[in-house]
Amino acid sequence: MNIPSTQTSDHVAITDVVQQYIDGAKSGRSKDMKSAFHDDATIFGYIGDDLVAGPIQDLFDWNEANGPASGLKTRIANIDLAATVATVRLELENWAGHRFTDLFTLLKTESEWKITNKVFHLHRQ
């Protein structure tokens, strides 16, 4: 099966966007990850019994408060692409001592990909 070159280039671009997010997590500086997200992006997930739901600024604040995650290990488990929308599943270990599964939705806007939503699961250890 031949994969169209635009699909291949979109996969590369999506991977690059996710890498910006990872780089910001590792540096602990939200400015390093902010460009990966749409201005109106949101975040949802549970920390214990508490629902985190709101603007992506909540993630940026948490990232800044926790500082660099130099020992962070990540793996893109899946990218699912349909023309101008995509989903990504990212597995993260050792972010501030935690293990997360992140699910992102992305939208291709003006020929660039942006994360529009992050839903996460915090694994109990």
Largest sheet, strands/sense/barrel = 6 strands, mixed
Going by helix content, strand content and strand pairing, the class is: alpha+beta
**CATH fold node name:** Nuclear Transport Factor 2, Chain: A
Helix-strand sequence: HEEHEEEE
What is the top-level CATH class?
Answer: Alpha Beta
Side-by-side strand order of the widest sheet? 2-1-6-5-4-3
Share of helix, binned: 25-40%
Measured distance between first and last alpha carbons? 41 Å
Number of domains: 1
Number of distinct beta strands:
6
Name the average pLDDT: 94
**Proper CATH architecture:** Roll
Low-confidence stretches: none
Nearest-angstrom radius of gyration? 14 Å
Helical run tally? 2
Strand content: over 45%
Shape: globular
Question: How would you concisely characterize the structure shown here?
Answer:
With 125 residues, the protein is α+β, with helices and mostly antiparallel strands.
